[in-house]
Input
Amino acid sequence: MNSNIPAVHYYDNDIFAQESNMLFNKVWHFVGFRSDFENDNDFVTVKISGKPIVIQNVRGNIKAFLNVCSHRFSIIQQEQSGNRPLMCPYHGWAYDKDGIPSGIPKKPLFKKFSKEELCEMKLKEFQVSFCGNLCFISINENIEPLEDFIGVFYNELKEMSLSLGTRLDINSMEIKANWKVIVENTLESYHVGLVHAETLAKLEPSGLDFEFDAQNSSWTSDLNIVKDKGVYKKINSHFLPRNYDIGGYKHILIFPNLLISTTHGISFNYSVIEPITSDISRFTSHVFTTATENPAEKTVLIKGFEESLINFNRQVFDEDKTVCQLVQEGVRHTNLSGKLSDEEERVHHFQKTYLKFLQHES
Output
């Protein structure tokens, strides 16, 4: 198979701007977990196509607003996550659950605002939807329901997310590579033998058990780790019973940039690749184990397993970072069309979906 995307798509600034308008402005974006918004005033901030957005628990309501004060346009929540009222740090304007100014310091010094005028100063609001414990937002007013967007993987993602227990690690790094280079790297195992020779390759993932649905895809593989044999039998037993249980490894792409993987339903990885510029991306990975009946009761074996899981994931992603940055160096110096093997069929599908968005006439 020929690659669908010319090399120029991985570095051209004009194409990067088209992606914002034609793709990222149109889709659902994963922004966090329900536990990130558990308490009143818990918030997470993101940027979608450069637009600053805050997702916040406002008196029990999970809302997404433009993170820009209506008064003099300061950014409201300045950290990536935290807990503070929806209040501008510049002049103290505060907002209610509908994004309407509800607290204005020295209010008598302003002209008296009517109810209609206050509503006109409402923070722009965006759609929020959950798949189990996974929180998504969209800035597209005409977006299809999240369940339709995720498609056949919706029920499985919901079941997986409801099975999450302890979050062991959040690994965030800047990678000097186009976001598509990083996504495509995760969609194929062709590179595993060389790039991950001392890590992932030792688990011996293999096969072409792919599933495709609209813009999304998955890969399922057996591993050489058997759940009920050897040392791993004790690890498996610790995490029993569990609601989500599989025999090997599964990797799911929710287009365009959410990647979910699990091994045996015991460990989970949720990774997001956020474009910053045409050749710089932010990679963030969340590592979980599945929920257990007695999470505080951990043997030395389980504590060692959790530590190894963190170290393993970080090493694998460092290896991927290195090779993705090498690709980014190379794409500026070729006019050839890449070639794809059957093992890279998910890359082919991703590229076709990507081009459909960019070629769609709005």
The mean pLDDT is 94. The longest strand covers residues 164-175.
